[in-house]
Amino acid sequence: MTPDRPAVRLPESELSWRFSRSSGPGGQHVNTSETRVELRWDPRRSTVLSPTQQARVIARLAHRMVDGHVVVIASEHRSQLRNREAARRRLEELVATALTPRRRRRPTRPSRAAVERGREAKRRRSRLKQDRRAW
User: Are 91 and 42 within 8 A, CB to CB?
Assistant: First the structure.
């Protein structure tokens, strides 16, 4: 984890796993084993997060939620174990990112030189269009 992001460890009891057959490389093995992992987590029922943290996670991850659960799918590896680890890591990174407070935008003003350049460009454009007009 980066220092600006809190480390989040979700308990196994809050996670719901589903497995299915994965597409991609693997030959005959891929036709018989369920290596694709779907990890579901309900932030409203989480014991790890405070109510304000729950609200923040729900608001920030609303686009990723399905029926009130945050869903992460992993199928990039050929083994179910590695896909489970990848899905869990991805979910915990998502939650940690959602928990970090957003930086407030510091309002800035354009420099005098930038304003002058914009005005000069506008004058040039105006002159160009005036020259195109038929008399």
Answer: no
Which CATH number covers residue 39?
3.30.160.20
* Cα distance between residue 61 and residue 98, in whole Å: 7
Q: What domain range includes position 75?
A: 12-99
Spell out the per-residue pLDDT of the chain, length 135, in tens. Answer: 555 666 788 888 888 888 887 776 666 666 677 888 999 999 999 888 899 999 999 999 999 889 999 999 998 888 889 999 999 999 999 999 999 888 899 999 999 999 999 999 999 999 999 999 976
Count Cβ atoms below 10 Å from residue 52 Cβ, excluding itself.
8
SS3 content of the chain, % helix, strand, coil (to 5): 45, 15, 40
In this structure, is residue 105 part of a structural domain? no
- Count of the separate structural domains present in the chain: 1
Number of other CB atoms surrounding residue 95 within 10 Å: 25
